[in-house]
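Limitations

Structures in this collection are predictions, not experimental determinations, and the ligand pose is part of the prediction. Treat each record accordingly. The example that follows, with magnesium ion as the small molecule, is included so readers can see exactly what is and is not provided: the inputs are given verbatim, and the output is the predicted complex.
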Amino acid sequence: MESILIVDDDVNLCTVLTDELTEVGYEAAFVNNGDAVFDFLKNKLPDLILLDLKMPGKDGFQVLNEFQEKRIKIKVIVLTAYADVKSAINSAKMGASDFISKPYDFDELLITIRKVLQRDS
Ligand SMILES: [Mg+2]
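Predicted complex:
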């Protein structure tokens, strides 16, 4: 079973999205801030991370930056309400595989998740 970690400070979104992903056959978990990601990764490396950009404390860009610094190889889709061209470009430069704007359409998100998981890297 492929595993997905949701990283978002919106607890309601995390709960709903975890249920949606579980229903379609993924092993889903969530954390609510950027620092908690690294604690989570000590125990398990998920196949994919859905990453919010705006979070209190360590934001999404800082998380991506730290992945690069620590050479943590993990697929990331950025999921954010602040979808704009600049954020998309910056996320891609920092290693994100794709970019989805909130509020997300689950079917669209699912297509993107499957596409990213099928890629070799
Ligand atoms: Mg947020």
